[in-house]
Each structure stands twice: as C-alpha cells, then as structure tokens.
Amino acid sequence: MRNEGAKVFGRLPVRVLLRGGPDGWHYVVVDKEGGEERTDLRVPGSAWHKGDPEPAWWGRRLTETAEGLRDRLGRALTDRTFDELGLEADISWFAVEEPLEWEGLVTLRDADPARFPGEVAPYVVALEPGRGAILPEAHLLFSTLATDAWSTLRTVADECGTPAPRASFLCGWADHRSVRVGRGLLALSTSRRSDGSERLAEIYGERSPGWGGNPELRFRLDGIDLLDEPAADVIALFRDLGHAPVHRGRTWHLSTIGLTLYEPENPYGSFTGVALRPTC
Question: Among 18, 16, 14, which residue's Cα sits nearest to residue 33?
Fold first, then answer.
C-alpha cells in the first residue's frame, strides 16, 4: 500500500471511497473535517489485456475483487480506529458504479469485547486425527454425509452471527463450502466414496495475523493451539510428541496423522492455516 496525506491521531472517519481503474485500485478515507487520505492498493487494475476482448468471466472476477477489497478495507479501518480512538468502525457500502466504484458511510461504536483478553471465549475446533473434529456444539467426523456437514456449517454461522456458508469450486473435491468465524474461516471439502456416498474428506481452517475477531477461531490438537503459538514452537512440540514433520515449500506435513500446516510470511509468526484429512 502507498499512502498520500498526513495521518492525524484521533481523526474521525465519516466516509470511505473505493475505486478501481485500468491501472489499479485505491481508496480514500474522508474525515469529519473534510480531510482526505488516499491509499493505493497493490491489486491488478480493471482492464483486461490490452487489445484482447474481455472473457465472459472477467466481470465476475472484478465483482469478487471489489468484494474482497471492501472486506479488507473494513478490517483495516476498524483496526486503526481502535488503535487511535478505542472505537470500532462499521462501514455501510453503497454501489456508485458497480463493480468499480463504491462509497461507504462510517459508523463508530464501542470497542468489541473480544478485543480484550478473557472477555469472550474463543471458538475452539478440536482436531482428532483419523476421526475429524469436535466443535463447541457439534461433531464433524470423516464419516459425516455431505448434507449433514453443510447443515453443521449453517449452525456454526448462526452461532457466530456470520453470513451463511459459501460454496465454491475447488479442484479435486466433490464440493467445498466455508463459513466465517470471527475473522477466521472454517471450510469443509467432500469426496465421493466407492459406495457412491458423498462424505466429509477435509477440514480446513485459516486465520490471518492480528486480532482474530469475535469469536476468535482456534484449532487445537493434543493441547497445542496450532494457529496461536509461534510456528517453530508448534513444530518442536510435535517432534517432542514423536511425530516427524516434513517441510515442503511453505507447508509442514505430518502424514501419519493427516495434518498439514501453512506457514506465515513472517518466519517468526504463527501458522495461518491448517488442514486435516483422513489417514486412510
């Protein structure tokens, strides 16, 4: 990102403008006094390859890009207002010209209780190699039928007050759906068995660095908080337990228990993703 405009501690944001163009995307935060701060985003622009006609899917891609940037901007702004003002910032978005131009009205509110340690219990997913996972109010076993797995995701969304599960295409799976938990993501993938039934085949979770949202999503295995402890410590703990983690690219694999851990960009940070599959 590249900022233009001085940052003023205690600035009260009232509007946000998000725009995409041929050369890229940027947003502008407008404060109560009329001051503006522009930030250029390192995201490809709206133009397809010069001289070539746009493919049919390009418009959908721009819509998805804008959606992701609105979410990203909302997180960045509320984190900043919390740091500077002790308040959260909610943005109500309105399309000016879809999908490239958006305006958001900012509403400030009291800080989320989950910002303060011990105020809100985390949402813990306890992984059980070879079996699946235990959620606070449900079980996700690898014998679970797809219809029951999707029902469980809907229940999670209701419990956490997040949007309904989202389906997406993921190569190699019969189906793939995900739900937001705080700022984290819980996703399930299914496969078709030899008897024709479609059952749960992978449990995946991710959480970006920083505040985990309300509630914070955590993944535990053998008492280890996989996405909270430093990545190097997690690997050391597994070795102490007799496992032999194998490093490939930016992932660590524990094949005997079907576990994959995804490394952060920061070599001293925590893992940002975890996946569990059946061991046979």
Answer: 14
Q: Which of 70, 89, 111 is the last residue of a domain?
A: 111
Q: Give the pLDDT band (50/70/90) at residue 5.
A: very low
Query: pLDDT by residue (tens digit) across 258-276?
Result: 999 999 887 789 999 999 9
Q: pTM here? A: 0.86
d(CA 116, CA 105): 26
Long-range contacts of residues 245-251, Cβ cutoff 8 Å, at least 24 apart: none
Q: In terms of domains, do 148 and 272 share one? A: yes
Structurally, how many domains does the chain consist of? Answer: 2
- Give mean pLDDT, residues 147-171: 94
* Spatial distance between the Cα atoms of 277 and 85, rounded to a whole number of angstroms: 44
Q: Is residue 189 part of a domain?
A: yes
At residue 23, the 3 state secondary structure works out as coil
Same domain, 140 and 245: yes
- Please tell me the number of Cα atoms within 13 Å of 140 on its side-chain side: 34
Q: Domain check: are 99 and 150 in the same one?
A: no
Question: Is the pLDDT confidence value at 2 over 50?
Answer: no
Please determine, for residue 68, whether its predicted confidence score (pLDDT) is greater than 50.
yes
Residues 151 and 256 in one domain: yes
**Is the domain of 82 the same as that of 163?**
no
Q: Where are the beta strands (DSSP E) in the chain?
A: 2-4, 13-21, 24-31, 36-41, 87-97, 101-110, 123-128, 132-134, 139-141, 166-167, 175-181, 184-192, 198-207, 217-221, 224-225, 246-248, 251-254, 259-262, 273-276
Q: Give the range of the structural domain holding residue 238, as residue numbers without chain letter.
A: 123-276
Which tokens in the block code for residue 132? Answer: 């699946």
Supply angle C-alpha 49, 50, 54, rounded to 5.
55
| Residue 172 and residue 136 in one domain | yes
